[in-house]
Amino acid sequence: MANWSVINTIAKRELAAYFQSPVAYVFLVVFLLLAGFFTFSLGGFFELGEASLNAFFNWVPWLFLFLVPAVGMRLWSEERRQGTMELLLTLPVATWQAIVGKFLASWLFLAIALALTFPLVITVNWLGDPDNGVILAGYVGSFLLAGSFLSVASLTSALTRNQVIAFILALVLCLLLILVGFAPVTSLLARWAAPWVVQGVADFSVLTHFDGFQKGVLDSRDLIFFFSIMAFALFTTGVVIRSHRAG
Amino acid sequence: MIKVQNLTKSFGPKKAVDDASFEVGKGEVLGFLGPNGAGKSTTMRMITGFIPPTAGKVSVCGFDIIDNPLEAKRRIGYLPEAAPSYQEMSVIAFLNFTAEIRGLRGDGLRRGVGRAIEACSLQSVLNQSIETLSKGFRHRTCLAQSIVHDPEVLILDEPTDGLDPNQKHEIRSLIKQMGASKAIIFSTHILEEVEAACTRAIIIDRGRIVANGTPDELKARADNAGAVSMVLSGPTSETINGKICLMDTVRKSEVLESQPPHTLVRVYPDKSATDGFALAGALAELAVREGWKIEQLQTEEGKLDDVFRSITLPDTHIENKKAA
Predict the structure, then answer these.
(1) Which residues contact B312 (CB under 8 A, 6 or more apart)?
(2) What is d(CA B237, CA B264) in angstroms, rounded to the nearest whole number?
């Protein structure tokens, strides 16, 4: 119980820190503007003639590719730069509690950003008669995708005190997670590799696992995939932080 | 309450702290002295559990900092070297945050935070964000953070760094006052601080503890501790010096200034003498016997500065020469 109250305290502070800086509001505005632009303009929401949010969800991985590292880049690099890491980790807090607390705060922030796209849901419901279960599954998938990218950003931000480097590293790693399952890449791969290799590689892609959610299917394998990425990246964050302290 | 045994920390081939052992009990204020880079901060970081030692043990109130870190950390208040804090937070939010992490709630939290605010005189800036504060206030905010839970053990890394003389004085008296009921370690470059606030001092040089004792004991190690200086008028300084050197309790005598008819001499007692008073008496008798006029007579107590320099300097010189 005491474990969670410490995590809760850390998460509360972290979330408040987002909203104390203008960056949070800038982020939310940019996210919502881009979401609207991608959905209606590039995604061809109206041209599709479907009562669904596929036009939005198709773009979510690409949108998150840039925006999630931007949210996560300061998680640990800022603590290191300001020296508050020494303060935080000499309080009666286990390192994993600090990692989880900070991660949950950022994840919640991304959940708020996702929730603010609710006008899309209203629009599509007003125009037609969509399957809201599928839409909900899409949101669940987007949330898990955000968490996975965020855990990667948490890892890269623990590696450096420079936020820009943390951002770029996270972006590259997340791009890799997308590309291995991106259709143009897999078709290129399929020209000279055996199908089982292509499939094996694509299984590591977030796109492959995000696909199911978009279709309204909650597959336990997809859930396990996303949670494994988060668990692995957060665990590695802990290893990195410990090795820094060991000097 | 703090027990440090054979503590060692290596960064690569360099030993930042080398086999340090000491204890600090309740009611003790231990001053941590040493040149920059001597290993003071590293030692404190190991005691507070921020960095793991390469070898050795630290226990705080009976809890090992490696085996039982949370229990040990609960009993420690720590002010890190640069007094870091979350810049965007207000002072009160920051203090509430640290108090909450330390498990304080409701009334206990308000009391603890209130006490810390008062002790560090932060009333006027409570709702200001920390980044807008002056260095002194920022420092005191971080110090307040370390005492919200009224810890049994306080580790303060340069608590008076960057403060003006009045603030320094306040912090020093605060440390002294808290020292009665806690075990405190604080590091400083300012030697008068050690005399003002410490019950004991450790001098650390290149990772090794080179002196450990009360400020008075350390001062007694100074070359001029127990020496008597006096201004005499009468015969030439050579005569005076000659006569004084004949005394059997005198190790050495030197003429510091000679402006006839006045002579300033400093007389060092034999190693067997424990204080300068006996020597002063003997010198006074000699002066009366010889018919010298004593203008001024003073026993010197050693200065920590001198001790500090004599302990930490010579080897540095040697090393510099080697490097050159």
Answers:
(1) B34, B35, B38, B203, B205, B210
(2) 8
Question: Cβ(B294)–Cβ(B230) under 8 Å?
Answer: yes
Q: What is the DSSP string of A144-210?
A: HHHHHHHHHHHHHHHH-S-HHHHHHHHHHHHHHHHHTT-HHHHHHHHTTS-HHHHHHHHTT-HHHHH
A26 touches chain B (CB under 8 A): no
User: CA B166, B169, B174 angle in degrees (round to 5)?
Assistant: 130
Q: For residue range B27-85, what is the model confidence (pLDDT) as tens digits?
A: 999 999 888 888 899 999 999 999 999 999 999 999 999 999 999 999 999 999 989 99
ipTM at complex level: 0.88
Is B102 in Cβ contact with A86 (below 8 Å)?
no
For the beta carbon of residue A138, count every other beta carbon within 10 angstroms: 23
| B143 and B120 Cβ atoms separated by less than 8 Å | yes
A84 to chain B, any CB pair closer than 8 A? The answer is yes
d(CA A234, CA B5): 34
* Residues on chain A touching B45 (C-beta within 8 angstroms): 86
Give me B270's structure tokens. 């034999």
Using one digit for the tens of pLDDT, what is the confidence trace for A23-55? 889 999 999 999 999 888 887 777 777 778 888
